[in-house]
Amino acid sequence: MDRSVLELLECPLTGSRLECTAAAGDGDITYGVLRSDAAEYPVVEGIPVMLPGYDDVVELVHSGRHGEALERMTLQQIPRGGVGRLLEALASIERTRPIASRMLQRDDNGRRGHARRALEDGSPGSLVRFQYVDSAGRTVDAYDYFSLRAATPRYLVALSCIEAIPDGNGPVLDVGCGTGLLSWALEQRVQPRRVVGVDMSFVMLLTASRDVLRGGTFVCGDATALPFADGAFDAALVNDVLTVIDQRRTVVAELDRVLGPRGWCALTSLHNARARHIFTHRPVMVGSWRRLVARMPHRIVADDLVIERYRQGLGLPAGPGHEAGDAEVSTRLTVVMARQESDLVDGDRFDDWPHARGVLQVNPLYDATGRTGDGVVYERRIPSEVFRFDNVPLEEYLPERVVVTDAALRALADGRRTPEVDDLVASLVVMGGPGRAWVRR
Question: Does the pLDDT of residue 414 top 90, yes or no?
């Protein structure tokens, strides 16, 4: 963690400033403890954990047992298996406590060993694979969500919002940043401004800092009690967050607090109760989303419209005339709000495709299935019916089968843009990103 980040942080319990103790690292703070008037917060692998209740990790950092602190944080959201849960129950009973406690210790040692191997695995996304594929918390649909996120329609919506961020000098906040893909996209767009990603999952943040945006600024914190100073940010992006929590008014109030005088914010992938969803939590009508942000100038637009304009090379439709009506039936919605009405305008035509930044490679939804005389045959493979339903517009615009010539593949390997590569980028068969694609399950 860059020491200058301390200027942005504050205690989420009292709003007081923080001082750093027990710091370890060469210039930056790799391990340390941040102390406020109410609590102590550990810094683990450069990530400040601004959540109460981690006194055990604080003690490990104070004691210089950094490896144990890292393992503890890695395991904090990984559930035990069925045997482990049974042993926990037996350990709470006086009669069975001695033997159950010993067996529970063995289970803990095994879990730490699995976590250690995941931490030592250098392949992209290894920690997310550990959490959602290899651990007792197995949720393969969640792994698909993170590993294939750049291939989804909602990523295009987020990129459109990122392009619309007003120019400025202040930092930009990515709320619910997960594995940091949008933090990376934000940095590509607004550098040299600082981008700060905040998320409650330490595993996601560690993945972001190791595999996606090395040297990035990531903070483990709660969107309902953002651990940042008043007016610390010029802009914010909130993607796939308000659909999974209840305290939406609190989140919006917190965003209002941490945004500066020219604050701008986009809330994307909001679920519309008029449509069906697989993964959702209390979806509401357009009017309810409108009431939530009524205190600030805003626009509510259908994600379908944002995607349609994006495919035409046009920016976010945030100006007058595009706003969704209360009877809108679009599956997802995007809210753009700004302190200044003049910052709510339609985006211009892109100078270049936002998804062309970074390392260009074939869209991860494609598998190489053979060859023709012209090149390699790629076929679109949707990993599950759940993924298909959750990304309905995708099959409307992404070709089912495409041939990529050997010349184009060589150009991609060399990082060159040729007319054929440009055509592949325009059709979303080729996309840019921070590096190697993650292993598909």
Answer: yes
